[in-house]
Amino acid sequence: MSNTKGLWGWLTATFPPPKPGGFAWRIENAVTAVHVWIFRRTGGRILGSFDGAPLLVLHHVGAKTGAARQTPMIYLPDGDRAVVVASIGGNPRNPGWYHNLKANPETYIETSRGRRAVRAHLASDDEAAALWPRLLEIWPAWETYMTRTTRKFPVFILEPRRS
Fold it and tell me: Is the whole-model pTM more than 0.70?
């Protein structure tokens, strides 16, 4: 349990994520939908963290489909910014939301502090290197996820959009 903070971190570091499109993947998507529903109904008071790491709900628009999507994920609060990692548990490909943010960077997030408009940008190598020690502090399991793939995990910085 060296690369984990708690039960959820241990589970995700011990067992690889399900393969996209498979039965376990469909179950995970259903559980995720329930998670988002509970998070949104309670303002993040319930299911607002994993093992103490804060969660947000990322709203994003499908790059190919244009469909509205919501994904709960761990984030690093960084002043008025939020930092997220496209790890998908160490799968060999980036998660769908990665492509969606690249195509449609202006979006919304929901945290326990409410909903806010943000603009996503991919962190530069220097920005990501500076953030990784803090990211691993809040979610040490990312270190294990990195051993499952050769890809580098993209780090996105979500900055407030000014109206």
Answer: yes
**Per-residue pLDDT tens digits for 110-154:** 998 899 999 999 999 999 999 999 999 999 999 999 999 999 999
CATH number at residue 138: 2.30.110.10
Write the CB contacts of 93 (distance below 8 Å, at least 6 apart in sequence): 20, 151
Token look-up 């780090």 returns 155
Can you state the percent helix, strand and coil of the chain, rounding each to 5? 35, 30, 35
Q: Is residue 51 part of a domain?
A: yes
Q: State how many domains the chain has.
A: 1
| Alpha-carbon separation of residue 30 from 27, 33, 37, 142, 157 (angstroms) | 5, 5, 11, 23, 27
Q: Which residues pair with 83 in a beta bridge?
A: 76, 157
45-72: pLDDT as tens digits = 888 888 889 999 999 999 999 999 999 9
Could you give the CA distance from residue 94 to residue 58 in angstroms, rounded to a whole number? 16
Q: Coil, strand, or helix at residue 17? A: coil
